[in-house]
From TrEMBL:
Localization in the cell: Membrane
Protein name: NADP oxidoreductase
Similarity annotation: Belongs to the complex I 75 kDa subunit family.
Key words, A-Z: 2Fe-2S, 4Fe-4S, Iron, Iron-sulfur, Membrane, Metal-binding, NAD, Translocase
SUPFAM superfamilies: 2Fe-2S ferredoxin-like, 4Fe-4S ferredoxins
Location of the 4Fe-4S His(Cys)3-ligated-type domain: 77-116
Length: 241
């Protein structure tokens, strides 16, 4: 008999080694997340996936599933905390959705809609961040970076290039490019790299593709991020692209 945990009262099967997030995703249960991608080792930085386990707040993407856990996720309290975290991400960077070509395909925007975010609430920091357009096929707009490190992990672990890294701390954190000039044009990154497919925002974009899919026909234009993930799980049986 398989082991189970309970998520919001629903019995969810899991196997040894799975996290609460893994078990939830396999069961088609959406727990909001941004720095997590099932293809990579969890990172646990955005805290959006925080759930309550037996009364304690934990990051579901890093917490192993253990038989008998009572997990609460879709609660007013936790969603209110997720909303604040999301609003902070918006004001810490420069996320101008109406002018961003990732609009409709952006996980940060989709999570904000899912959580019912109607305004950023906090004062904008309007940080000065650099755009790197030095590469012929790839653009890095640091204004939209949320420091999830997915590109760092993908470039290092899949592409074998280690093009990206994080530098600095707190508000001084920045996404750096590993080349002598510090510019993308002097790296071996390619538009087909895994690093170019994992960015949850519009920080990393392939050039000349911005409007290949018109606004209105994009991933989250018709489906919430929750419904999109559930359908994807059913279609792939838990195997993500
Ligand atoms: S560029 Fe994108 S994938 Fe890379 S750290 Fe920033 S938000 Fe994450
Ligand atoms: S998704 Fe778990 S901490 Fe970001």
């Amino acid at each position: 008999m398989s082991k189970t945990i309970s998520i919001d009262g629903q019995a969810v099967a899991f196997s040894d080694g799975q996290t609460i997030m893994d078990a939830a995703l396999a069961a088609g249960i959406y727990i909001p997340h941004l720095c997590h991608n099932p293809e990579f080792k969890p990172h646990g930085s955005c805290k959006l996936c925080t759930v309550k386990v037996n009364g304690r707040n934990v990051a579901s993407c890093t917490m192993p599933a253990v038989e008998g856990q009572e997990v609460l996720s879709d609660t007013g309290e936790l969603n209110a905390e997720r909303l604040v975290l999301t609003q902070m991400l918006f004001v810490e960077g420069n996320h101008l959705c109406p002018g961003c070509e990732k609009s409709g395909n952006c996980q940060l925007q989709a999570v904000a809609y899912y959580l019912g975010m109607m305004s950023p609430h906090f004062n904008h920091f309007y940080p000065q961040r650099e755009v790197d357009a030095s590469h012929p096929d790839v653009l890095l707009d640091r204004n939209r970076c949320i420091y999830c490190e997915l590109c760092v992990r993908a470039s290092r672990d899949v592409d074998g290039k280690s093009v990206f890294g994080l530098s600095g701390r707190g508000i001084g954190t920045t996404l750096v490019v590993n080349s002598t000039s510090g510019r993308l044009g002097d790296t071996s990154i390619a538009a087909t790299d895994k690093a170019m497919q994992v960015c949850p925002t519009g920080a990393l974009l392939v050039k000349r593709r911005g409007f290949a899919v018109p606004i209105g026909d994009r991933i989250y234009d018709h489906l919430s991020i929750k419904d999109h993930l559930s359908i994807k799980e059913v279609q792939t049986g838990g195997d993500h692209e």
